[in-house]
Amino acid sequence: MMDNKSPLRRYFEQFRFVFLTIFLFYMSMILLDYYSVIKENGFSLKPFKTNGANHHDVDNNNNTPITPSIPSLNFTQNNSTTNGVEFNSTEEKQMIPPPPPLIRDNNVNVDELIVTPNSNNKAPPIRNSDPCYGQYIYVHKLPSRFNDDLLKRCRSLLHWGDMCPYLTNLGLGPKIIENAKVLLKDTWYQTNQFSLEVIFHNIMKHYKCLTNDSALASAIFVPYYAGLNVGQYLWGYDDRIRDEAPLALVEWLSNQKEWKRMWGRDHFLIGGRTAYDFRRKSGDFGDWGTKLMFLPEARNMSMLTIETDSYDNDFPIPYPTYFHPSKDLQVSLWQKRMRRMKRPYLFTFAGAPRPNAPYSIRNELIRQCLSSRSCKLLSCYKGKNNKNTCEDPVSIMSVFQRSIFCLEPSGDSYTRRSTFDAILAGCIPVFFHPKSAYEQYRWHLPKDYLSYSVFIPEGDVRENKAIINDTLARISRTRISKMREEVIRLIPRVTYREPRSRLGKIEDAFDIAVKGIIRRVEEIKKEISSSTDNVYYSNE
Ligand SMILES: *[C@@H]1O[C@H](CO)[C@@H](O)[C@H](O)[C@H]1NC(C)=O
Ligand SMILES: *[C@@H]1O[C@H](CO)[C@@H](O)[C@H](O)[C@H]1NC(C)=O
Ligand SMILES: *[C@@H]1O[C@H](CO)[C@@H](O)[C@H](O)[C@H]1NC(C)=O
Ligand SMILES: *[C@@H]1O[C@H](CO)[C@@H](O)[C@H](O)[C@H]1NC(C)=O
Ligand SMILES: *[C@@H]1O[C@H](CO)[C@@H](O)[C@H](O)[C@H]1NC(C)=O
Ligand SMILES: *[C@@H]1O[C@H](CO)[C@@H](O)[C@H](O)[C@H]1NC(C)=O
Ligand SMILES: *[C@@H]1O[C@H](CO)[C@@H](O)[C@H](O)[C@H]1NC(C)=O
To answer: In the chain, what are the domains?
Structure first.
């Protein structure tokens, strides 16, 4: 029977086979293009890009340059929801300049290269032969009173406790010993949220493109522990004491030769507290914090903080979490594990009520959680043994890992560290205020905020218009798995690596922050050189 086919028919079948293969190939190319458009734009369906040349870049983990349309959510719906605070979702901040040159483009494994720029040789770096071109950072050698001496006084750094244990392991805190049921071995630490300055500085000490030649540097890092410094004086000290170190710092900086090059506009610092702690306005907050960032010199510098209130030289970056991997593999193992978790709780709230803040929605969230069978409440009261479960990474992570959604309302300020613990656990964050994340972490989190989170306006909760359990239960399973996948993809972006390690392909929160700063300095340079009087920019 097989051999009965006529040669013509066999020829025809072969032809059909070839035709089908080509057809399928073209269909899949078209679908791929379509898919990348969807990925880029959330669910707003746009026609195919006619310029197909672009689609390799689209899904390149690089969220900042993408301009998605923001679907469905309407912040202007009701004024009360934003608490009188304006949120202009169409407003483009100057914060998202184009990315810096990517050194990974030329297939050099930068992590293997030991960079020793010769400071005697002032020849400018050549773009292609130098993998660090455009990425050099010069770290100021500050007098020890601005950093190391603070660590020695760790007992008096916190008003409410002892910071010393948290400053061990290069600022990561004590290693967590656990039977690997909840966490991965060897990558988890009891990290304090105020340690970011120390962690960041220690990662910087191992940054791949450090230089001792400040003329070569794209940006200049000022390793002052601004938050630890002010933390000592927040309660019961006068302004003169609080501002003593900030004033001495800017005096020191402005007397260095690096200052004159751009009047400090290529300098950056990090503050592991909210920006309000460095911008004392008399009266407003009862004279809170220092006036560091209001000093004329500091106005020329950029500051990385964990939360800001829209100053154009503040760039919020994620709070530190407990996870500090040293290898790419540890990150992907953790991501794999979070994908497979069984999540019996629809939602979780880990936090304390704010009984003295009637405007806070926390009390209402706690009430709703307690009356929902699908909610798990992790109460942040100190128990009998004075142990606060909310400060125990194992109990937090074990609950977040088993929850689909994690509620992240504002607390004493708009943002919370818990947001990043939730992302780390693959738990989809639910925000109630745009300043809790969307208006903050523009470098680290996708612009299309509905791709990784749920937004329920604070006002709706306050006015009993939003029933949390109903709202969340109505979200489809497909949408949940898409969001969760996105959250899990974000894990490395909100993680600070073990300071002495270098990751391979993965970019962590530190890498993204440094890239952001370098881009910003590039922008400033362009601005200066394009202005008619470029007297300020001299290379000497
Ligand atoms: C947003 O809400 C306002 C007030 O309800 C309405 O006028 C406006 O059309 C809405 N915009 C969108 C894009 O839905
Ligand atoms: C906004 O909230 C107020 C206060 O509850 C309510 O009366 C009003 O109808 C809401 N407006 C819109 C446009 O939803
Ligand atoms: C929103 O606030 C503005 C001014 O604060 C007011 O004029 C307007 O009526 C408010 N709109 C709603 C829907 O409440
Ligand atoms: C919001 O953005 C629009 C368009 O960019 C602009 O016209 C408007 O002035 C902005 N509003 C605020 C309050 O910034
Ligand atoms: C900078 O100089 C110090 C000693 O002066 C040296 O230990 C360090 O390795 C140098 N760093 C680079 C990146 O050359
Ligand atoms: C800040 O930078 C400007 C130029 O952009 C310069 O004129 C000014 O003197 C600088 N301020 C300080 C305190 O150096
Ligand atoms: C949902 O929450 C409401 C309000 O808190 C509560 O009355 C109701 O019992 C909850 N429903 C379920 C199924 O848990």
So the answer is: 36-91 (no CATH), 137-320+507-529 (no CATH), 339-494 (3.40.50.2000)
